């Protein structure tokens, strides 16, 4: 059954029509989902051992939420990415170059590669995956009747949701796995997926991976000053292990979003995939440079009450 | 920074939409044909009603013509009488108007014009005759058109013309 479903009153949040997707994070177990509905955020987890898509549909029905399209945050290890330095998306040749680069990287025919491009300060960042891999990821959702208009690597979704201008390392703990992501809201540096056995006290192994990530970022000229830790499991022990490495804090966006649990940040960010970054923030590059930050700042100001647990299945 | 690796799904409802389109076209055609048939029936009924009304009017016109024919014939007769007919009684009233020394040789009454040839011993008698004719009912515009001395002895030949007016309706129908 669906795990704990959190809902919070967030005041008069005006969720536009374009925010009609439910974000689903399938990068870490348990899988998480989040959706803005009726002026509040509702989120939950999808249990193992049964088909996730029917479980999500049941959870939405239990929360009295109508049919929604799915924005899928897929495991970052399922995709590959690279930067074409010095280029901008305005050139039509960039897409051809990116497709050829992706096909070469994946060692497939160009028509069998799925490529997405984005402008970054260092050039054009392209993410790519094999078409068959994407089809396999979205097949269960399509079979259940969901539309899947957005498929995004979870690391990029997470970084955009955190909205940090300065590079950070994010450690997300799942059931038997850890994902380590380094980057800022507009720059993905590294993403690593590490299987761990929490019962065996492998926090030190995770610390080693984080230290290696910070060193690798330093070699790329990026200084990591914060480590954000979130997810499921013994987070206190994990955070204690990182002490001395950098400033260790619990995973949360760089803006007020108390309604969303740390493990649902990626899903919430995916749900807001179509929310445009405000022009003012894009131009100035100010802190919290994402539409999500602007949205939740507004939500925080208008929030009238604290989180309340409404449903448990 | 946004990325989207979603794959556009093939549209699987093309056949269904095609059939729906065909059904819609058929339903629309049937509806349109039904409306057109109703409209044609209405127009046909209107044409039939107008045709019946025209036939009725034609019958009334023919009846009116039958009623008006004798009157028109009478009017035509009266017009002809007014145009051609003269008062035959004029001829009877000419003789008494002539003095004793005036002899009438011929009198020609045709198409409202009376021409009289005669002889007289004195031209004063001729003038008196013309004067008397001008007062005869049914004659007007009496003119002495010629006056000539007769052959070897005394006497005169004369010609008189006058307009013979139409007879009165009572005399014309008598």
What string, H for helix and E for strand, traces the elements of chain B in order? HHEEHEEH
CATH superfamily of the largest domain in chain B: General secretion pathway protein M, EpsM
The overall strand count of chain A is 15
- What spatial form of chain B do the alpha-carbon principal axes imply? rod-shaped
* Total individual domains of chain B: 2
Per CATH, the architecture of the largest domain in chain B is: 2-Layer Sandwich
Tell me the number of helical segments of chain B per DSSP (H or I, 4 or more residues long).
4
First and last CA, distance of chain A? 6 Å
Assembly type of the chains comes to heterodimer
Task: State the helix count of chain A.
Answer: 9
As for the CATH topology of the largest domain in chain B, it is Gyrase A, domain 2
Largest sheet of chain A: 7 strands, mixed
* Outline of chain A: globular
Class from secondary-structure proportions of chain B? alpha+beta
Radius of gyration of chain A: 19 Å
- Greatest interface by residues involved: A-B, 33 and 8 residues
Strand coverage percent of chain B: 15-25%
Strand order of the largest sheet of chain B: 1-2-4-3
CATH classification class of the largest domain in chain B = Alpha Beta
Order of helices and strands of chain A: EEEEHEEHEEHEHEEEHEHEHHHE
């Amino acid at each position: 059954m669906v795990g704990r479903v959190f809902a919070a009153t967030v005041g008069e949040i005006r969720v536009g029509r374009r925010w009609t997707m439910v974000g689903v994070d399938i990068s870490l177990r348990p899988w998480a989902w989040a959706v803005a509905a009726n002026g509040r955020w509702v989120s939950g987890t999808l249990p193992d051992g049964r088909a996730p898509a029917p479980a999500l549909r049941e959870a939405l029905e239990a929360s009295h939420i109508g049919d929604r399209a799915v924005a899928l945050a897929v495991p970052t290890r399922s995709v590959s990415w690279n930067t074409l330095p010095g280029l901008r998306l305005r050139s039509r040749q960039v897409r051809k170059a990116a497709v050829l680069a992706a096909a070469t990287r994946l060692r497939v025919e160009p028509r069998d590669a799925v490529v997405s491009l984005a402008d970054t300060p260092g050039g054009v960042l392209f993410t790519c995956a094999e078409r068959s891999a994407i089809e396999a990821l979205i097949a269960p959702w399509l079979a259940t009747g969901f539309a899947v208009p957005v498929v995004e690597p979870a690391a990029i979704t997470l970084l955009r949701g955190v909205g940090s201008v300065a590079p950070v390392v994010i450690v997300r703990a799942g059931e038997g796995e850890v994902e380590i992501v380094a980057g800022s809201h507009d720059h993905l540096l590294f993403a690593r997926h590490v299987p761990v056995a929490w019962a065996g006290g492998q926090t030190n192994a995770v610390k080693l991976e984080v230290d290696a990530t910070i060193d690798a970022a330093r070699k790329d000229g990026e200084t990591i000053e914060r480590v954000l830790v979130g997810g499921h499991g013994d987070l206190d022990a994990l955070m204690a292990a990182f002490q001395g490495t950098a400033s260790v804090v619990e995973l949360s966006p760089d803006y007020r979003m108390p309604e969303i649990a740390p493990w649902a940040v990626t899903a919430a960010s995916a749900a807001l995939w179509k929310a445009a970054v405000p022009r003012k923030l894009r131009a100035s590059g100010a802190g919290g440079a994402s539409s999500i930050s602007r949205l939740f700042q507004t939500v925080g100001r208008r929030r009238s009450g604290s989180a309340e647990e409404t449903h448990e299945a | 920074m946004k990325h989207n690796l979603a794959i556009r799904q093939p549209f699987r409802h093309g056949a269904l939409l095609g059939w729906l389109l065909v059904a819609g076209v058929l339903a629309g055609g049937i509806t349109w044909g039904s409306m057109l048939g109703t409209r044609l029936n209405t127009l046909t009924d209107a044409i039939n009603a107008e045709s019946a009304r025209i036939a009725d009017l034609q019958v009334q016109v023919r009846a009116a013509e039958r009623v008006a024919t004798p009157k028109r014939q009478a009017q035509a007769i009266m017009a002809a009488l007014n145009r051609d007919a003269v008062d035959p009684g004029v001829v009877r009233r000419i003789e008494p108007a002539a003095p004793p020394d005036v002899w009438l040789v011929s009198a020609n009454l045709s198409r409202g014009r009376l021409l009289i040839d005669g002889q007289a011993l004195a031209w004063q008698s001729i003038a008196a005759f013309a004067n008397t004719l001008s007062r005869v009912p049914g004659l007007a515009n009496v003119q002495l058109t010629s006056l000539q001395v007769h052959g070897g002895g005394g006497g005169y030949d004369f010609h008189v013309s006058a307009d013979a007016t139409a007879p009165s309706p009572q005399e014309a129908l008598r």
